[in-house]
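Please think about what follows:
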Amino acid sequence: MTDRALTPHQHAVLREHATERPFTSPLNDEKRAGDFHCAGCGTLVYESDTKFDSGSGWPSFYDAVPGSVETTTDTSHGMTRTEVHCAKCGGHLGHIFPDGPRPTGLRHCINGAALEFEAKS
């Protein structure tokens, strides 16, 4: 799939599995109602009603839009984690941890550079 117009930082995160530094994304503090789309292909991946403040420094969600993401096992950096990526373009979004709120108990810890926000009016 052809990339949308990605910044070098977005390309590094989405296509090279980089991780942005914590507390650097403006989307971490985004509180408006709206939708979060994959910056690589525009697919709707998260909705604002599933976003919560995890204190981790990255935008966090307790669930994704059904069918929008897939997971793989990531064994890099000497640990085993669940990597989450866009189901459409395969872009690296972040990781999922089992320490989130109800109803799922999951924390989708997502790189803001991998997302584009569209506010609802």
About this structure: Residues 8-119 form a domain with the Metal Binding Protein, Guanine Nucleotide Exchange Factor; Chain A fold (CATH 2.170.150.20). The CA atoms of residues 19 and 121 lie 31 Å apart. The chain has a mean pLDDT of 95. Helices lie at 8-16.
